[in-house]
From TrEMBL:
Signal peptide: none annotated. It comes from marine metagenome. This is Pyrrolo-quinoline quinone repeat domain-containing protein. Residues 98-242 form the Pyrrolo-quinoline quinone repeat domain. It holds the Pfam family PQQ_2.
Length: 243
């Protein structure tokens, strides 16, 4: 149906230096390609069913589902319909996935962790890997996969539809979370301590909302409706103060 997503498809392709990390089919494993020639160098073992791929330094992190992709039966069994069907039929199933860590150069797997992970929330910095587990923001150590900290419960929609996803961003020692309830929170990346909370504007239409970080500032703007102002508000990344 119109505007049904799935928004996660954009998280299956990463290009870094002379390597491309990509799923070459909906249910295919993550392949590592030579960026110049397109030649496949290797697959990441155990990555079949990958829904997301991120590359951080010398690590590749994947989010892998054990189950067949929900939309595999879409074309044979469903007509196009309208947006009302998205609310009813196209939602994240909230089942556990596997977060897996690999060596970016060799493809060797370092660790994996089975957990619920909200769509599009997998991210990393030099120390930790972060995600939203359906209730909390979680940090696990990038070298071991062991939990470093967990936040208290944070807000999110009762159902996360395929055309939406919470926002989780890490930048300069700060983890930002916005779950779609018009608020955002900032946590210390190392400890999980809440640094500040503030308004988060509704910035998308049947799509993930904007949460932009640039030069030490966090930006959002109301852009969903033609009646919205479209004016961006910038907040200090460390304090939440409007600048």
């Amino acid at each position: 149906p119109l505007k049904s997503g799935p928004t996660q498809l954009a998280r299956r392709l990463v290009a870094v230096d002379d390597r491309v990390y990509v799923t070459l089919g909906v249910d295919e494993p993550v392949s590592v390609l030579d960026a110049t020639t397109g030649k496949k160098l290797h697959n990441l073992a155990g990555s079949k069913g990958a829904e997301e791929v991120i590359v951080s330094g010398d690590h590749v992190f994947t989010l892998v589902s054990d189950e067949q992709w929900e939309l595999n039966t879409f074309l044979p069994f469903h007509n196009t319909g309208d947006q009302a069907r998205v609310r009813k039929d196209f939602a994240w199933n909230e089942k556990p996935r596997h977060v897996k860590a690999y060596d970016a150069a060799t493809g060797k797997k370092f660790w994996e962790r089975k957990t619920v992970v909200s769509p599009q929330t997998l991210t990393a910095d030099v120390r930790n890997v972060f995600f939203h587990d359906g209730e909390k923001v979680v940090a696990v150590h990038r070298s071991s996969g062991e939990v470093e900290w967990q936040s208290k419960k944070v807000n999110r929609p009762a159902e996360v539809r395929f055309n939406f996803a919470p926002k989780l961003v890490v930048n300069d020692g700060v983890v930002l979370y916005a779950g779609g309830d018009r608020t955002m929170q900032a946590f210390e990346a190392g400890s999980g301590k809440v640094m500040w909370e503030g308004p988060h504007a509704r910035g998308g239409y049947q799509s993930p909302e904007d949460l932009l970080v640039m030069k030490g500032m966090v930006w959002s703007a109301p852009t969903t409706s033609g009646r919205d102002s479209g004016v961006f508000t910038g907040r200090d990344l460390k304090t939440g103060e409007v600048k």
